[in-house]
Amino acid sequence: MSELTITLLRLGYLVLLWVFVLTAIGVLRRDLYGTRIVNRRLRRGGTAAAPVAKPAPAVAPDARSAPFPKREVMPRRLVVTAGPLRGTTLPLASSAILIGRAPSCTLVLDDDYSSSRHARVFPQDGEWWVEDLGSTNGTFLGKEKVEQPTPVRAGAQIKVGQSILELQR
Question: Is the pTM of this model over 0.85?
Answer without folding.
Answer: no
